[in-house]
Amino acid sequence: MSAINIKTLIRQDVLKFLNSFDTILSDCDGVLWLHTTPLPNASDVLNLFRKLGKRIFYVTNNSTKTRDELVEKCKSLQFEAHRDEIICTANLSARYLQSKAFTKKVFVIGSKAIAKELELADISYCGIGPDIIIENKSYHVFEKDPDISAVIVGFDEHFSYPKMIKAATYLNDPNVHFIGTNTDERFPIDNDIVIPGTGSLVRCIENCAERKAIIMGKPEEYMAKVLKEQYKIEPTSTLMIGDRCNTDILFGTRYGFTTLLVLTGVSSLSNIEKWKQSKQQEERDFVPNYYIDALGDMLCYLKQLEIEAS
Q1: Which terminal residue of the chain, N or C, has fewer Cβ atoms less than 10 Å from its own Cβ?
Q2: Same-domain status, 249 and 282
Q3: What is the per-residue pLDDT for 300?
Q4: For residue 138, is pLDDT > 70?
Q5: pTM of the entire structure?
Q6: Residue numbering of the annotated binding site for substrate
Q7: Annotated binding site for Mg(2+)
Q8: What range does the domain containing 141 cover?
């Protein structure tokens, strides 16, 4: 528990820090961009990290885009990216079911991205899109699909009472898999409107189903397992960059990654000071190893490292 401001370090210590890792796990929303607006110099920083020989992974809890769609978004915002570098929860949800040799059908509360990733994994599904409330309709009975053996809950702008009924009813069978893409409470955006995140929907279904979901995203174990086993990530030489301490930084703390908080998204310095003083270990685990105002502020240090390496 340290929360060292990168900008207070002397040049030698900054270079030591930059040389201490060979792999970067970077969150996206709030770190690299806000919605569709890239944050200043963030692409230059990540691309220069790559040029200096660092492995780059885009590690996002966002379930509204497939890996291919995220590659296209990265490229449109000037970030170099490749499909195998995208770790997203829509894909992880399909990958999790594949690991269970799943052959049945999924009820999805979520986006078309989850559907696309399930299709790529040859897994059938239903539930995408609006489920309209019909006036005077009885909710006591609906025709259950006997093939449903999993429920996935991701971000769904069509979230509704009928979907809650169906998800909770299917989950009443303890043999039905229950997957939540992530637990982010709200989305980081650049105005004062609150956009509820996927975590709000997952908690709702957990409450009415009286079950806990297996969570695909940060800070839970499955994402770390995939990174370590499939991509051979070595935690002691990996940097986790994020803007949200209770997901990104906690993920790094739990699984042994060095952590860097950027202050362009959800968490703030006042949060860090409060967590430092907390008597609860989990809140103390929210405290990053390092922080900086914005990822783009790393550019001057990386240029120094580039000069040293040449």
Answers
A1: C
A2: yes
A3: 96
A4: no
A5: 0.93
A6: 218
A7: 27, 29, 243
A8: 92-215
Per-residue model confidence as pLDDT tens digits over 32-57: 999 899 999 999 999 999 999 999 99
Instruction: Name the amino acid, one letter, at 287.
Output: V
Is 29 designated active site? Answer: yes
Tell whether 171 is covered by a domain: yes
Question: CB under 8 Å to 226, separation ≥6 — which residues?
Answer: 87, 92, 95
Listed residues 151, 183, 215: the one ending a domain = 215
- Please state the rounded mean pLDDT for residues 279-287: 94
Per-residue model confidence (pLDDT) at position 289: 97
| CATH number of the domain to which 106 belongs | 3.40.50.1000
Q: Tens digit of pLDDT for each residue in 73-127?
A: 999 999 999 999 999 999 999 999 999 999 999 999 999 999 999 999 999 999 9
Active site residue 147: no
Shared-domain flag, residues 252 and 275: yes
One of 27, 184, 285, 297 is an active-site residue; which one? 27
